[in-house]
Amino acid sequence: MRERFGGNMEMEIEEMARDIGEVIARPNGEFWVMSSRGERECPDGHIGIFDVFDAKGRFVHTLRLEADYNADDDQYLIRGNHLYVLKEAQNAPDRTFSGGGGNMMMVVSSGGSSDEDEDEDEEPRPYEVICYELPDGI
């Protein structure tokens, strides 16, 4: 903004601005860190761009995970050496995701429409879940 508008403009950064979106502890002791940059600059069809740190906290490399994933519609979970993509989970009404202790709970309602023409026995559309195995040392 200074270059464009000139002057002595003061920049304020919110004290609690989030730059770390996610930290994933890997079974081999590494940590994958998703920064706001990794979320913003991630190309379509990728989960994100992670900074990889070894067990001693030293930066090792940057990792970009490619998968059948759309950030606007899908959710993902990384547990152990598996990446789970929950297709269209962002669009599900009444959804609950809980990742505590490596467990996942998902509650999905059928939509809650009050039309009398709707079949009450109709089951909700099942989720598509894609599971990828993550190789060691990527």
Overview of this protein structure:
This protein has one domain (16-113, 120-133). It starts with a helix and ends in a 5-residue tail after the last strand. The chain is mainly β. The model is unreliable at 97-117 (pLDDT under 50). The chain has helices at 2-5, 36-40, and strands at 20-25, 31-35, 46-53, 59-66, 75-79, 82-87, 128-133. Strand 1 and strand 2 form a beta hairpin. The chain is 7% helix and 32% strand. It has a four-stranded antiparallel sheet with strand order 1-2-3-4.
List keywords for this structure.
138 residues; mainly beta; four-stranded antiparallel β-sheet; three-stranded antiparallel β-sheet
What layout of secondary structure does this protein have?
Layout: H1 2-5, E1 20-25, E2 31-35, H2 36-40, E3 46-53, E4 59-66, E5 75-79, E6 82-87, E7 128-133
Antiparallel strand pairs: 1-2, 2-3, 3-4, 5-6, 6-7
